[in-house]
Design a protein that fits this description.
mainly beta, about 140 residues, 4-stranded mixed β-sheet, two-stranded antiparallel ribbon, single chain
C-alpha cells in the first residue's frame, strides 16, 4: 500500500472535532474529553508498521505504548468487500497492525491536554504518575 504520513489535523474539523460542551469549537458532544488513541497519535509516540527483518522496522519497541498487550485504536483501517470492517490496533510487540472490529481486544483511553500544559513532576508510570499544571 501507499505509505501515509501521520497528522494531528482533521480536514473535517467542525464535524469530527469532538469537544466538551464548554468548548468554543467542535461538536460540543462530549461529557468528558476522553477518547481512544488514534493510529496517527500512536505513530507520533513511536509506533509504526512491522517491516521484514532483513529491512529493519519503522517502529520503536521501547515506545511507552508497547505494554506487551494488544489494544484497539480509534482509527479505521479498511472495509473489505464482504462488509468486514477492520481497525488499527497496537500489537504485542508495539507495532501498528489491524484487526476486525469484532475481535476481543482491550482499549487504552487517552485524554487531550490543552496546549501549554506542563508536567511539574513524575515520570508517567503507574507508581510515579505525572503531576500537571494547566496553563
Amino acid at each position: 500500500g501507499t505509505a501515509q504520513v501521520p497528522s494531528l489535523g482533521c480536514p473535517r474539523n467542525v464535524v469530527d472535532l469532538y469537544t466538551t460542551s464548554a468548548a468554543s469549537d467542535g461538536n460540543k458532544q462530549l461529557a468528558e474529553p476522553v477518547a481512544l488513541l488514534t493510529a496517527d497519535e500512536a505513530s507520533f509516540a513511536g509506533s509504526g508498521n512491522r517491516i521484514s527483518a532483513s529491512y529493519g522496522s519503522d517502529y520503536d519497541t521501547n515506545s511507552f505504548l508497547n505494554t506487551g498487550a494488544e489494544f484497539s485504536l480509534l482509527s479505521p483501517y479498511y472495509r473489505a468487500t464482504n462488509g468486514t470492517v477492520n481497525i488499527f490496533k497496537m500489537n504485542t510487540d508495539g507495532a501498528l497492525t489491524y484487526d476486525s472490529v469484532i475481535s476481543s481486544l482491550g482499549v487504552r483511553p487517552v485524554i487531550s491536554l490543552k496546549s501549554g500544559t506542563n508536567i511539574i513532576s513524575g515520570s508517567g508510570i503507574a507508581t510515579d504518575p505525572w503531576i500537571i499544571k494547566a496553563p
